[in-house]
Amino acid sequence: MDHELDLRADAPALTAALTDIASVSGEEGPLADAIERALTRVPHLVVTRRGNTLVARTALGREERVVLAGHIDTVPHAANFPSRWNSERTVLTGVGTSDMKSGVAVQLRLAASMAAPNRDVTYVFYDCEEVAVERNGLYKLSRSDPDLLRGDFAVLLEPSGGVVEGGCQGTLRAAIATIGKRAHTARSWMGRNAIHAAGEILEILRAWTPRKPVVDGLEYHEGLNAVAISGGVAGNVVPDECVVTVNYRFAPDRSERAAEEYIRELFAAWPVEILDNAPGARPGLSALAAASFAAAVGGTPRAKLGWTDVARFAELGIPAVNYGPGISEIAHTPGEYVDARAITAAEQSLRTWLTL
Amino acid sequence: MDHELDLRADAPALTAALTDIASVSGEEGPLADAIERALTRVPHLVVTRRGNTLVARTALGREERVVLAGHIDTVPHAANFPSRWNSERTVLTGVGTSDMKSGVAVQLRLAASMAAPNRDVTYVFYDCEEVAVERNGLYKLSRSDPDLLRGDFAVLLEPSGGVVEGGCQGTLRAAIATIGKRAHTARSWMGRNAIHAAGEILEILRAWTPRKPVVDGLEYHEGLNAVAISGGVAGNVVPDECVVTVNYRFAPDRSERAAEEYIRELFAAWPVEILDNAPGARPGLSALAAASFAAAVGGTPRAKLGWTDVARFAELGIPAVNYGPGISEIAHTPGEYVDARAITAAEQSLRTWLTL
Q1: How far apart are the first and last CA of chain A?
Q2: Which residue of A180, A222, B50, B326 has the lowest C-beta tally within 10 Å?
């Protein structure tokens, strides 16, 4: 079925419409199609598509160009699809409402309605942000078409509770394996149980204390978690391997390389395989473009704890911040929701910034 | 192709012939057919078939009746089919040689040649011992035709290295779950990591000391092992569930129910689901029939640690032991083999017991 998006609907209604087009990572096709159809009808935009990633640009010859970017995928559903309004129609619950269909709705509203913003604007809608970095649509675009991302400043409409969030933490995933020796469980003392051995890895994780460094005036908060564990051969076999996958979220005062070294040292007793590793980004709020944006939308900037594609822009030399209506604390939880007033407020702030 | 078995061949040669008729669990038809054809030609036996399970009985009106039982299936091949003799023709390698075509060869030799044993004998050849209990031919026969299994004593010709092995340990599998709370790993302190929590279960397993009770004069050795572990939602989510599957091998002084209670108490802090539970069997070597058998074949009986169908006979109130020429330690391994002299010796011992 082809979905039709009405970009004249208000941003909360558009958020609900976007949420109700399922787009778990890898399955964004129908939503990308709907966004493409809606944007190509807007006369002041030049639309380019790469896979399930869309770029819509104004071409007004302004001195400054800014990028407004958001991902269109969500984490898997958890009995929270489709979306549901509360009776007052002030709170919308559902997968992706905060992270980040509400941000995408704001992008689409601005893209459709602002024919002559004070700066040229590049709107980016990309896929596969919630999965491995090599599938990330913004990452792929930064490799295939970096010119499409050119700009003086970027805003990612990731959930930030309507506050400007500077920088982001890095994220590293590693697989740590314990090796044992198989045996029949009837004579288990002939073997060495690799699952039992993984208990030591879990002990390290349980005893771990997070660093909370202050970087460029903002306080970060690290995290180290097992995100997967697997082991076992058969119901009557002492298993000879168990793999614990950990996710380390590291503050932007630590490089990718330093993060890897830290994890290898912490788990020096076992073979460690680095699965992926994305750097953080320092907040960089001292840069001119970022400071003027923060002044325009108001409030006190804070540190971004999650990893976001702010780091991708940092890599391209483009100052970037997170600013979106969603609430990051409840992203990826079954109860994920967004406040309709926050969506309207974010749209209004950005509209003001692109007008005055 | 119809296979023909020559029951006048010596037991090692008959073992090779039996091994070379493939009979992985569920595919025992051709071997059952061959055994049926061979046994129905023996005038002093009454043969009954149920599926791929065969029962051959003498009907001499003796005061005592004993059961000699063996399964005709094997585990899947592992590049070890058909069988192969070493150059001296003393060692036969191949799938099922130890577990337990050599035992079946001894049964067939005795069945064919002993027209007037000192006790009536019921020879049972059954299918599907290596798979789930509800497919087990002996189990099914115990439900459909318990009269066919009647007897004062039973010998299972399972691999026991030519030693009388008494009783068997029970086996229980249980799934133990930890429950946490999902959160984004960027803000892991908002959640509770269920994989980290499983560390406490693994600590209990690592600290566990096996009981080694002496039951009816034989020492058993319990085991408690994680045989599987799984948990994890996505690479950036604090997981809310982790399941550890454990296999408890318990000595026969503990009932199924007591084993379950023990496991539930040991892991009282978590929900425990019992996946399966098969009772052990006391060695029962003090029973008259068993004692006379042990005396006749000689050697020092030892405890059976693995689970075997001895427990099935125990359930029917029939004392039973394992006694066979195969080697249990190398059963189910690619290098499975049997020693020709052990086959001949086992046949001779049983013949003596049934003669004197």
Answers
A1: 41
A2: B50
Q: Of these residues, B127, B129, B309, B339, which one is catalytic? A: B129
Contact call for A185 and B236, based on CB within 8 A: no
Alpha-carbon gap, residue B217 to A352, rounded angstroms: 89
What ipTM was reported for this prediction?
0.77
Strand-strand pairing, A237-238 and A183-184: antiparallel
- Residues of chain A with C-beta less than 8 angstroms from the C-beta of B173: 235
Q: How far is CA B129 from CA A9, B28, B69, B309, in A?
A: 67, 11, 12, 8
Helix or strand holding residue B352 (H, E): helix B340-353
**Residue A229, strand partner residues:** A244, B231
Chain B residues in contact with A328 by the CB 8 A cut-off are 184, 186-187
**Which pLDDT score, from 0 to 100, does residue A282 have?**
83
CB A327 within 8 A of CB A161: yes
Catalytic residue list contains B6: no
* C-beta atoms surrounding B283 within 10 Å: 29
Residues of chain A with Cβ-Cβ distance to B160 below 8 Å are none
* A73 among known catalytic residues: yes
- A226 and B305 in contact by Cβ < 8 A? no
* Whole-number percent of chain B with pLDDT over 90: 81
Residues near B337 by Cβ (< 8 Å), separated by ≥ 6? Answer: B91, B92, B93, B94, B97, B98, B327, B330
d(CA B153, CA B170) in angstroms, rounded, equals: 20
Partners of B324 in beta bridges: none
Q: What is the CA radius of gyration of chain A?
A: 22
User: What's at A216, amino acid-wise?
Assistant: D
Say if strands B302-303 and B120-126 run parallel, antiparallel, or are unpaired. Answer: unpaired
**Tokens at residue B100, please?**
């337990």
Per DSSP bridges, beta strands A65-71 and A153-156 are: parallel
pTM > 0.80: no
CA of A11 to nearest chain B CA: how many angstroms apart?
A: 26
